[in-house]
Amino acid sequence: MIVGHIKQLEKSKLELPTAIYQVLHTISQWDFSLHPDGEKTEHNVVYKTFHADTAPAIERTAETHIENIDVQFVISGQEGLEYQPIKGHVATDTHPEQDNYFYQGKTGDEQALLLSAGDFVVLFPWDIHTPLCQVGHPQKVRKIVAKIPITLLTSR
User: Fold this and answer.
1) H or E segment at 154?
2) Which residues pair with 144 in a beta bridge?
3) pTM here?
4) Domains along the chain?
5) Which of 69, 82, 100, 115 could be disulfide-bonded to 119 (CB atoms 3.0-4.6 Å)?
6) What is the C-alpha to C-alpha distance for residues 94 and 90, in angstroms, rounded to an integer?
7) Which of 32, 123, 36, 31 is nearest to 81 (CA)?
8) Which of 113, 2, 125 is nearest to 13 (CA)?
């Protein structure tokens, strides 16, 4: 897992894999007042821009992906994101055709991040994550989730 802020992107360039840096650079160039909600694909990366409501962490479902890396970027609002290493946890609800693997209940291994406008988190297949957890009270969040095929990290 990698966490950062879009204003520090150029300083992070040395530590980020090229494919991840390119996705974040693309996002950094968008004017969000003009950028519509919806889904688009560029260079095999799917970008999903949407509004969502946060909810108590206990009501949110943890997830992982096997074929894709999630880059989650907060445009506006504030959300908590719980994460934990996959270790021996086993998904209880699998949808391999959508590359979604869901986990029910809490394990006690969860850690929490606070994400605000401009923050991003990169989640790899070994990072179980629970996005859109409320901080204080429920609120609207606008965000982008980019799905980067894991093969883009290994192709040269």
Assistant:
1) helix 151-154
2) 49, 73
3) 0.93
4) 2-154 (2.60.120.370)
5) 115
6) 10
7) 123
8) 2
